[in-house]
Amino acid sequence: MSAIVEIDFFNSYVVRRAAAVESTAQKWFSWAPYFMWKSSFDISLDSQVSSYVNWYFEESRIRAGFNNVSTDQGVRAYLDEEYPLQQRRISTLIYSGVYNSRTGINQTNVFSVGDAITKSLDPVYGSIQKTYAEETNLIVFQENRIHRALIDKDTIYTTESGTQTQAGQNVIGQFVQYKGEYGISKNPESFAIYNYRKYFADKNRNAIMRLSNDGLTEISMYGMRDYFRDELAEIPSNYYSVSVNGATSAGFTISAGGNAGETYVDIQKTSIQDYTMISAGMQFVDNGVTVDGYITSIISISNVDWRVFYSKPFAGLSSGGVLTASYEVIGQIKGGWDTHAKNYLVSLQKSPNQATTDDASFKTLTFDEEINGWVSFLTFKPNQMFSLINKFYTVGKSDSTTISPANSSAELYVHYAEPNLNNRGVFYGIRKPSNVTFVFNPEPDVVKNFNTISYEGSNGWEVNSYISGFTGQDLNTDGTSYSQNNDKILSIKSYDEGLYTDLNTGQPFRAGFDRKENRYVANLVNNSTPTADEIIFGNKMSGIKGYFATVKIQTDDTTQLGGPKELWSAATGFVISSY
Q: Which of 410, 407, 411, 405 is nearest to 295 (CA)?
């Protein structure tokens, strides 16, 4: 059946696709996949029409004239290339059009192929990891080289071997290389700046670097060359898999329940401390077979477990299978500037903070420009470090027993705030003692018997360890391996913690430090294991023997907890060994 329909309006477009609605409105429908508006007569609709999907066709020429002007959809913002090919140019910079808020010009989304808007560096030096704008220059950090790019100017070399600049035609001008075979490796997170000093890590060369007006300086050479050589080499450069194995009694509690068609798994927070590590790409392997599905939701059901809902059931569990959860992590080197203490902080992290906050997983150090050296180790593992106005902030992970998914297991902390609240040594809700490690080495060429230790300072310090240098190397009972021998003592309690009352006399005594003439003193009680040919050993002898001794002294857990502690000096009493 055919029909002629008169069009009563013009200047229309093809707008959308829609389903026909059953009605007795003034419309005309054909069995072709389209229909047109009609305003001159009615047609009762067949009930089957409502199931068809049709196109609205509307006129696009002005007044429907054959040669009249037609309208279209307007200019398209971009044109597709005829043969588009993806390119990954890891050592190339590109810039867009200009942005001027005063005139209303915004061309930040314009990348004209007709203009020279790219600038490439030598790809042999690796990918560009970071750029930093300093005044009218752009510092470009590659993995193995650092350049300075001139902005809106070029360098001219004069006949007198000098240089001068002039206005250039390109936004990014000539690249000038800094002297030195250094880069930022793949750790742009180590970058920090204060005034004209830039700090960063070059893991490829086992170095911590400073870039200033006098060029590149390897600050890890200042007394810490061997330390950074060893520690940086242990930080993984690539992603590696961390697995958490478990059945009902080890790490996981598996339950076939939850939402419809789902399985939920209760994972102990001691196994995975941060729920963001779960949501970031955790895979489940059920009895050796990877489970096809995805995580739908994660909730905290207690201070002990995360409950992870999965879209597919675990088939092997009902027959005694073992569930394995794995996720990928990578080592990081976090850097930041402490504007309060004027120190550069670097945190060497073998695994990210979300995976673990164990002390063995990180080392956080501070570098002081005033003495040009490394001054302290810190007990916290930060996610981020930065300074704002005159305060120093870090973002870190709290104690896992107090975390909920609402705060992503990370909190913002301001340092050096309100010390009168006795909150010293507390980072991210975890209190750890402050400690100082030093070496006693008087008269280095003679063997000594160390008998006493004393210090000048506040009450509340205790000796955690006092160990002599190696006194010999002996063959073990297995007949193949050797062990180093040294002397050590029992720990020495602080002035308050060592106080006790004699049950017979009722008199107070001190088992640790005692105070004499405003100094805290204690005897050294040997606690060494016996070695060959020793007649007197262990607590039957006083002091320890060796050329030198390494001592670790730290704050206790009771004396003015979190309050100020001062340590001015430490000394040891010794005699020259007679045998």
A: 405
CB 318 within 8 A of CB 256: yes
On the question of pLDDT at 171 being above 60, the answer is: yes
| Total number of domains in the chain | 4
Please report whether residue 502 resides in a domain.
yes
Per-residue pLDDT of 350-372, as tens digits, reads 877 666 677 788 999 999 999 99
**Which positions ≥6 away from 88 have C-beta within 8 Å?**
none
Which of 81-85, 133-137, 417-421, 516-520 is most confident? 516-520
Whether the CB-CB separation of 317 and 254 falls below 8 Å is answered with: yes
In a domain, 480, yes or no: yes
568 in the same domain as 440: yes
The tens digit of pLDDT for each residue in 62-92 reads: 666 777 777 665 655 556 667 777 778 899 9
Q: Is the dihedral of CA 287, 288, 291, 294 positive or negative?
A: positive
**In angstroms, what CA-CA distances link 553 with 21, 323, 428?**
85, 45, 24
Distance of CA 453 to the CA centre of its chain: 41
Instruction: State yes or no: pLDDT of 485 exceeds 60.
Output: yes
Q: DSSP 3-state assignment of 492?
A: strand
**Domain range holding 23?**
1-74
Cα dihedral angle (476, 479, 481, 486), rounded to 10 degrees? 20
Q: In this structure, is residue 221 part of a structural domain?
A: no
Enter the tokens of residue 5.
């329909």
Phi, psi (deg, nearest 5) at residue 397: -95, 130
- Helix ranges, 273-349 (H): 275-279
